[in-house]
Amino acid sequence: MLSRTADHLYWMARYTERAENLARLLDVSYQMSLVPQSLASQNENWRAILALNSLEDAFARVYSEVNVENVLRFMVSDAANPSSIYSCLRAARENAHAVRGTLTAEMWESVNGTWIELRQQNFEHILARGVSEFFDWVKLRAAVTRGVTFGTMLKDDALHFIRLGGLLERGDNTARILDMQYHILRQNDDEGASDFYRWGALLRSLSAFQVYRKVYRDAITPARVAELLILRMDLPRSLHACADGIVRMLQLIANGASAETERQAGVLHARLHFARIDDVLAGGLHEYLTDFMDRIYELGDGISQDFLIPA
Fold it and tell me: Are residues 141 and 184 in the same domain?
């Protein structure tokens, strides 16, 4: 496969996954903002989202105050913000258009249809309908695109690069969501009803609430939430599941230059496969997740050098 084609497929998948995970992050933050708390605490949580995406300076150039509406407007529909949901879905469509002949008709129609529908919604319209409804729409459109991809694409290198991009982005974003929300929740841990609501919202943001109930059949605890989202191989959005998929995809597309990248992916997978949650927490969850995100970034660099268009 031509590196240019692989590059477009890889980034189409990453931008689609990024938009979905941003919707998940913003939705859980919005749901948690409905829990009684001080205005300062609420705004600090929204400030954490900007910091998580290294967007504090870019936000400050446009808005003078960090609050729920300004952050949502900036992260949802700001075309000048390259990390907004609008910009991510636009970039996904542009990459898909560049390799339209490689995609099936159903897949192109899904990606293009999502973009067309998004352009018909401005932020005021989204607010009027309800931001949670919009976030559900983003998640649904990503799921539809993923479904037609797996259901109609030939199982060749094109599909493998799409899977690889999606898994890298999913693993990175799961770690980011968990790192930010776990820190906030531990600070506000009061073992009460609002605490249960907050932990439940975090699990729901990663489609893991029902899975948690099925696996643990007990009260929601921070350690078990971390274990589920990091180490459970059978949870599709866990770090372990993402690392396992990355290793498999790299094996399928391996070339003469990719041995080191495959090794790094194998090391990351082994650290998750043999880890115990007590050891992870004892060493510091933030440190563990930061190391994971650094390793995902290095893997992305390696993949770019080995398979895609040089920067």
Answer: no
| 3-state DSSP helix/strand/coil % of the chain, to nearest 5 | 75, 0, 25
Q: What is the mean pLDDT of the chain?
A: 90
* Alpha-helical runs (H) found in 34-156: 39-52, 56-60, 68-76, 85-98, 105-119, 123-129, 131-152
> What is the extent of the structural domain holding 277?
172-311
- For residue 3, give every residue at least 6 positions away whose Cβ sits within 8 Å of its Cβ, in sequence order, or none: 307, 308, 309
- Within the chain, which residues score under 70 in pLDDT? 1, 36-37, 185-196, 310-311
Q: Which two tokens stand for residue 265?
A: 């992916």
Q: Are residues 118 and 177 in the same domain?
A: no
Residue from 258, 254, 233 nearest 244 by CA? 233
Measured CA to CA, the distance from residue 160 to residue 47 in angstroms comes to 36
What's the number of domains the chain is made of?
A: 2
**Does 166 reside within a domain?**
no
pLDDT in tens, 255-270: 989 999 999 999 999 9
Same domain, 204 and 295: yes
Last residue of a domain, one of 153, 183, 212: 153
Distance between CA atoms of residues 148 and 161, nearest Å:
16
Whether residue 249 sits in one domain with residue 213? yes
234 in Cβ contact with 241 (< 8 Å): yes
For residues 253 and 111, state if they share a domain. Answer: no
How many angstroms separate the Cα of 284 from the Cα of each of 58, 61, 278, 287, 289? 30, 34, 10, 5, 9
Q: Which of 181, 171, 187, 169 is nearest to 225 (CA)?
A: 181
